[in-house]
Automatic annotation (TrEMBL):
InterPro entries: Beta-barrel_TonB, Beta-barrel_TonB_sf, Plug_dom, Plug_dom_sf, TonB-dep_rcpt-like. Residues 57-170 form the TonB-dependent receptor plug domain. It is found in: Cell outer membrane. Residues 1-27 form the signal peptide. Belongs to the TonB-dependent receptor family. Its main location: membrane. This is TonB-dependent receptor. Residues 351-914 form the TonB-dependent receptor-like beta-barrel domain. The keyword Isomerase does not apply. Keywords: Cell outer membrane, Membrane, Receptor, Signal, TonB box, Transmembrane, Transmembrane beta strand, Transport. It comes from Sphingobium cyanobacteriorum.
């Protein structure tokens, strides 16, 4: 345990109680390769630059996902398409958010495993309102999949072009604003087990008007994912290795040890009193209640409109509305006497011996043990449901003018406003009422609450109803109603607002030997605000969940940028093309002040067949509202005091660290030294379990900085039409990373690292020398480093008049994935390591990820086969004896049949995970395991073989 604690490193604070995760879909991705531009080519703006170019040539690799490639996956949610792009790490998703305090079922994108907060999401090149309160993270549930024309993904620092959050890269969703006609798309998906159903129905319509000067597109969609229960898959249907000792019938131990044997009592069938035989016999199977994937239901409406007011002036607008519903499913809450406090704030030792519900045999054991209070553990099945129900609503409006000046310069001026609302509620037990109900005594007509008969007490509660927790389903409806305050819910309400006003102009200034010098410049003003409001009882810590505080914050930023593209030479010997480019951006934040970002690079093509490219950039990320302003929230970290001579093993554990072997910092505390000399400085189990701590924001944070380098080559030989290869090296170093120092790390480093205030200021000890509180607030203290090589091979070949073959192979080889939590601290090397649910890794460090997609079409029939390869990983950071998972191969297939020559009417059938590959099983207590899954839920497929069929009709 101590080895693990010293390796506990930086934990990203992108969103409270939210985990980082990934889905298991596969897709084909086209790597853009430079092509010689024909005279008639349209100029376009490629993500990563604001300068229009005559082709998709760029000095950084841009991965493009086309509408056709999206349809080949059969995915209703665009996250499922992006999740298998090798540059995408573990996302927050429906398979990783069941245990989140809020935000269950959200969908995010996380480039290079640097966290979703370091990935900037754009829609039509413009920022989109966040979906997670206090952050910049966009919920991809708000993006209409069927309206996406193309997704462009750029990895590496792009802050000079787009501003903050673009440290890891940019994902730009380009919507089809020129669609004409009517399209209906419907799909039904089901596992081969007959569960995990998913349903999709969308309608898209578009038309031109005003003699072609105007265009409008409207899309409406509905999809529903029924989710999947842990109990419905063999690898996750039972807690491994042990069930929970918090059983629905209760566990009672006069001596408080709760060990199997004659001094610990529980109940068997028909609530017959018996001695406890262990968790696997008498315990509770939590996985019978949990979700592998949470259900999500979405309603989306999107409108895109434009009208040419004059020859060079176009008015445009975008309107988005998205509503999603989701829910988590947790086992009923476990309650022990150590979770409760008396009215005077002291710990609740247990049910008083005067309680008339105590069975005679247990009361006799209490008398024999000389105790008057009965420690207990029990699950609250017959009291309330603590699972979350979520309702999220997002709407966004964009209005702007764009056009040209003097037929030489292009301008764009727009304003956008977006809002996201989140309403989450769940049941709860109120601690004061639970204590009142447990403190029952015999009355003339049956048990009554002692507070209503003891004249010395002033907190009489006429509503109090005694509660009987001895046995399964023994709590009366009246008692359950009392301890839940009439079924009162814990609630969470959040609201995010974003306003953006921007203006830019671009064009050509003068000719250089290689072409015209192009530029783009502009200004942007942005205002962000976020509020998170928990119910008052949660704020006050009166429920049996953690004390959670509200967060309110806002900031604004004024930014200006300029970008230049200089074609130095073209059509010269050994210089088919040589170009340089650069950009610089200054941003003035109301929170951190002024920050600079810049990039410089270029590309060189000695001949048309090969091109070399490279970019160096210094990027920034300003701290989010949550990182700055989140109030203190209570946690109960599982920490071990390095001064504990029993090494955190609790009651009755033998002393394993002699007093002479204690660190000097321990013995310098007089209370610890005295206890060690008198027989041992140790903790009871209750003292360990009640160590709390607080996490929260820090208004003094500074911005993160990143240095990024991308170097690559593109080969597109003229002698092999349709064939191209790209190879790119990337390196991203993040410094002053915002995160927390792990609570165990603070304890270890304070004792063994010289007593630095950076660590010791986080720790509170009582008069006995024992730790009572360990805090973890946000700091600019960490660093991240990722590097690797991306390779893509593309081949397209037509044969005959109606046949075509397409092949896309993509491979990312990870060289480094590292993080350091504080200056001088240990560097955690994560290549080949599994993601860790409980220890804050960047994400699963697959040494190799490969995606291959092959499509063959003949006449009106096409078959697509996709393969996803994940190299072997393990977890020997927290488990030195960990075994490797072995390599994982996933196969997906789709058959499309056109009912007419133009394929305007299509039927399609697909299978995901064709060979029903099961995930590796690690067990519920393994740190890489997500609760209820027995595996790394954001890494491997949890659903198994999925079958789907759909129709895609265009009129």
């Amino acid at each position: 345990m101590k080895t693990f604690s010293k390796r506990a490193l930086l934990r990203a604070s992108a969103a409270p109680a939210i985990l980082s995760a990934s889905l298991i879909a596969t897709a084909a991705f086209a790597q853009t390769a430079p092509q010689a531009a024909d005279a008639g080519d349209d100029v376009i703006v490629v993500t990563g630059s604001r300068i229009a170019r005559p082709d998709l040539s760029a000095s950084v690799p841009v991965a493009v996902v086309s509408q056709e490639q999206i349809t080949q996956t059969g995915a209703a949610n665009i996250q499922d398409v992006l999740a298998e792009l090798p540059a995408v790490g573990q996302n927050i998703s429906r398979t990783s958010s069941n245990f989140s305090t809020t935000g269950n079922g959200v969908a995010t994108v996380n480039l290079r495993n640097l966290g979703s907060s370091r990935t900037l999401v754009l829609v039509n090149g413009r920022r989109f309102v966040a979906g997670l309160p206090g952050t910049s993270i966009v919920d991809l549930n708000t993006i209409p999949t069927d309206l996406i024309k193309q997704v462009q993904v750029v990895t590496g620092g792009a802050s000079a072009v787009y501003g903050s959050e673009a440290i890891a890269g940019v994902v730009n969703f380009i919507l089809d604003d020129k669609f004409e006609g009517l399209r209906f798309h419907g799909q039904n998906t089901l596992s081969d087990e007959g569960d995990a159903g998913r349903y999709l129905a969308t309608v898209t319509g578009g038309l031109s008007f005003g003699g072609g000067r105007g265009h409008i597109v409207v899309n409406g969609s509905f999809d529903k994912d029924n989710g999947l229960r842990s109990r419905d898959r063999g690898f996750s249907d039972t807690d491994i290795p042990n069930r929970s000792s918090f059983a629905s019938q209760g566990l009672f131990s006069p001596n408080g040890g709760f060990a199997a044997g004659p001094n610990t009592f529980t109940f068997g069938p028909n609530n017959v009193l018996k001695n406890y035989q262990g968790a696997n016999i008498d315990g509770y199977n939590r996985n019978q209640d949990r979700y592998l994937g949470v259900p999500v239901e979405r309603y989306l409406a999107t409108g895109l409109a434009s009208y040419e007011l004059a020859d060079n002036v176009t008015l445009y607008s975008e309107v988005t509305y998205a509503k999603s519903k989701s829910r988590s499913k947790l086992e009923p809450q476990a309650v022990a006497n150590t979770d409760l406090t008396n009215a005077d704030g002291t710990g609740y030792e247990g049910i008083p011996i005067t309680n008339p519900f105590i069975p005679t045999a247990i009361r006799d054991a209490m008398v024999a043990a000389g105790v008057t209070s009965l420690p207990f553990r029990r699950r609250s099945n017959d009291i309330f449901d603590r699972s979350n129900k979520n309702d999220r609503e997002t709407w966004r409006v964009v209005a702007g003018l764009k056009g040209s000046l003097a037929e030489k310069f292009n301008y764009d001026v727009y304003y956008s406003h977006g809002q996201t609302k989140d309403y989450t509620r769940s049941g709860t037990i109120f601690g004061p009422q639970y204590v009142n109900a447990l403190n029952a005594v015999a009355g003339p007509n049956g048990p009554v609450c002692s507070i209503n008969v003891d004249a010395d007490l002033t907190n009489n509660d006429a509503a109090c109803v005694p509660i009987n927790i001895f046995g399964a389903n023994t709590v009366s409806a009246a008692a359950a109603n009392y301890v839940t305050r009439g079924g009162q819910l814990s609630t969470y309400r959040a609201k995010i607002k974003q306003d953006v006003a921007a203006a830019s102009i671009s064009g050509e200034l003068f000719e250089l030997p290689g072409g015209a010098l192009s530029f783009a410049t502009g200004f942007e003003y942005r205002r962000e605000s976020s509020t998170e409001d928990f119910d008052q009882a949660t704020n006050d810590g009166l429920t049996l969940g953690n004390l959670l505080s509200d967060t309110r914050g806002k900031y604004n930023v004024k930014e200006g940028f300029i970008e230049v593209l200089a074609p130095i030479l073209s059509e010269r010997p050994f210089f088919h093309y040589l170009g340089l480019e650069g950009a610089i951006r200054y941003a003035d934040y109301s929170t951190v002040g002024g920050v600079w970002s810049w990039k410089a690079g270029g590309d060189w093509a000695p001949i048309p067949d090969i091109r070399f490219r490279g970019i160096y950039a210094e990027a920034t990320r300003a701290p989010s509202i949550s990182e700055l302003f989140s109030a203190q929230s209570e946690t109960f970290p599982a920490v071990v005091d390095p001064c504990d001579q029993a090494e955190g093993n609790g009651d009755g554990a033998p002393i394993s660290i002699p007093a002479a072997a204690l660190p000097a910092a321990c013995l310098s505390n007089p209370a610890i030294a005295a206890a060690a000399a008198a027989g041992g400085f140790t903790y009871t189990t209750a003292q360990i379990q009640t160590i709390n701590g607080f996490v929260g924001g820090n208004p003094s944070l500074n911005e993160e900085t990143a240095k990024t380098l991308t170097l690559g080559a593109v080969l597109s030989p003229r002698f092999a039409p349709g064939f191209s290869v790209t190879v790119d090296y990337y390196r991203i170093k993040v410094q002053n990373a915002i995160g927390i120092i792990g609570q165990q790390t603070s304890l270890d480093e304070c004792i063994t690292g010289g007593g630095e205030a950076l660590f010791c200021n986080n720790i509170t000890r009582d008069a006995t020398g024992r730790v009572t509180q360990v805090d973890a607030f946000n700091l600019n203290t960490g660093s991240f480093l990722v590097s690797g090589i991306d390779t893509a091979v593309n081949y397209s070949k037509s044969f005959g008049d109606n046949g075509k073959f397409d092949l896309v192979a993509r491979w990312t080889h990870l060289l480094k994935q590292e993080q350091t939590s504080f200056p001088g601290g240990p560097t955690q090397k994560e290549v080949g390591q599994l993601d860790c649910y409980s220890c804050g890794r960047l994400g699963t460090g697959f040494r190799d990820k490969v995606n291959v997609s092959a499509t063959i079409g003949l006449n009106n029939v096409s078959l697509n086969w996709r393969v996803n390869y994940l190299s072997s990983v393990k977890d020997d950071i927290t488990d030195p004896d960990a075994t490797r998972t072995g390599a994982y191969w996933y196969h997906d297939a789709q058959l499309r049949i056109g009912l007419d020559k133009e394929k305007t009417y299509e039927l399609y059938f697909g299978v995901d995970n064709v060979f029903d590959k099961k995930p590796p099983v690690f067990g519920d207590t393994n740190p890489v395991t997500f609760p209820g899954t027995q595996t790394s839920a954001n890494t491997y497929d949890l659903y198994g073989r999925m079958l789907y069929a759909g129709v895609d009709f265009r009129f």
